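Example (one chain per record):
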Amino acid sequence: MNEFHSSLNKPERIDLNDTEFGKLTLCKNTFPAYWGEVNSDKWINKLKEVDVLVLSSTMINFTVPSVVKNFIDGIAVADKTFSYKMSKDGNPVGLLNNLNVILITSQGGPQAEGTKSLQVQWLEQVFKFVGAKSINFIEINGTKMPNFAGVNPQEYAKTRLEEFENLMKKF
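Predicted structure:
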């Protein structure tokens, strides 16, 4: 991710592991206070103030890491990032319609050509639900396969940098 980060003009980089989302999980015991404890409004306001969110995630056991799930739980808040009250047809209305999302994902196993990984499918649905204007992705698959053995991650990232920069030019 460092290679991609350095190509941006004054980005704010946040490691979710170093935030409240790295410490708290939404469950029965935390439900009453979860959104206050993770400072949900702060994160929602950040998303409303930016044009582009670049989210990097690796697949763990067929899904996103728990810290990414915790982040989604913290920002998917009724009447703040989506609404049923504004619906004319019973479907949710996403309220983050300013947001362009770029997902940079990786997984150890290969992915069938022309298909999206489970984590990309899930994240894409989540960001559609909250109204993202566009959702783009760069998938890095098969990182635990023999053809990746000995590959320097930073050098590999440089081979995908142009793809990332082209996505950023769209916004």
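Caption: The two ends are 19 Å apart (CA to CA).
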